[in-house]
């Protein structure tokens, strides 16, 4: 019991992962704002896909709130939308950590609930994890905050048992959330007849929105590929939480999930969904593992530079 | 001391939170039937989530979303297909707005038939046991599903009207009509049968008075 308590309170774990996921989510949010910039009034505006009145009525029925409900003028909509973009940019850059994170959550929440039909599971899980991460330190690395702290005093980073424990619980919550997501998603697949008999991919690839003619033909040409796809997805999802318990099998879990999502991105074209899910895997590596990976890359690149230098030298010596 | 209490209490809340999440995400079961309303009240809307991704039975039919308009001079246009061109664009490049726009019509159309867990279970039972449907109508046709259906139709109409107004910018449009042509997938066992005819359903909606909607494009 005491060791758990100590682990929770003595230091913040996964600081690099938490910062990386902030950057990744921030970029995805900015992509979302900008790719639909031209359709913003239709998708989220007061006289768009939904009338303002219907939208506010829906919020009441679902006891929900959104910044966009407060006024039905186009001007107000434009102001909120553009502030949202600025906030998302500051969030990505890691400026004023927690305050920006809270604002970004409020703006994303507000935007998502104006129009749920444009969303997918990736946006859903991102929204929940953004909430958990409000309790974490996501600007320890790769952030303007870090840069500003360095300018002042390097030891001004506050690390109390309380903030450590909130940070660690927030990271753990995010990991459990994704584990639950994969586990239930896998369980529901097992309950489906076409997933059981391995023809699920055959049916999904018939749906024009979730397919691509080239990959459709390729995958449908082989029953073995169909089986690997269907059973592989179930296997990757169901085993995910359990593989995370061990520090070596964790890598298998991450590999499985990334492989699955790369497949979904390329074949089904659900690119942002996959990018979100792959980004979440960034939270699973410890700071030590990142340092280790960084050292290997640095070592390799310096070796490569050295070899290139030698080659250059050798060529020039020959010429001389 | 106080800090320690706060830490332990937050760990306790953490545990409770994921207990609720687990029940919320589980398939329909006795605990959920009894305490579901408490769990839902806690989880929604902040932690709303649904992970029945392409499961248990993935979508397998293709919906073509068609619209036609009538002008003030009485002329009616041909049907315009709103789905196929988006799908083509999405095949050519995945990094365009169409990547997500193409999914709106399916979502709106599906919401016409979506029900919550209890209502779905009940309507299944009524169907399976061949019960008198009228006796259960007061539950099955509740306010929630009615409102959802109205919203879904509204969205489809507004989508169509927004599109039509960009298609005929010079014309005075008085009303529009939409149709959803649903084509069921060819069953796996029939994929090599060239004579197989896919089951098709046409969902025809009522003519709708034209309203100006912010344009999609």
From TrEMBL, chain A:
It is found in: Endomembrane system. The chain crosses the membrane at residues 14-34, 74-95, 102-119, 125-144, 165-183, 224-245, 257-284. It comes from the Bacteria. Pfam families: HTTM. It is a multi-pass membrane protein. Its main location: membrane. This is Vitamin K-dependent gamma-carboxylase. The lineage of its organism: Bacteria, Bacillati, Bacillota, Bacilli, Bacillales.
UniProtKB/TrEMBL annotation, chain B:
InterPro entries: DUF5819. It comes from the Bacteria. Keywords: Membrane, Transmembrane, Transmembrane helix. This is Uncharacterized protein. The chain crosses the membrane at residues 6-26.
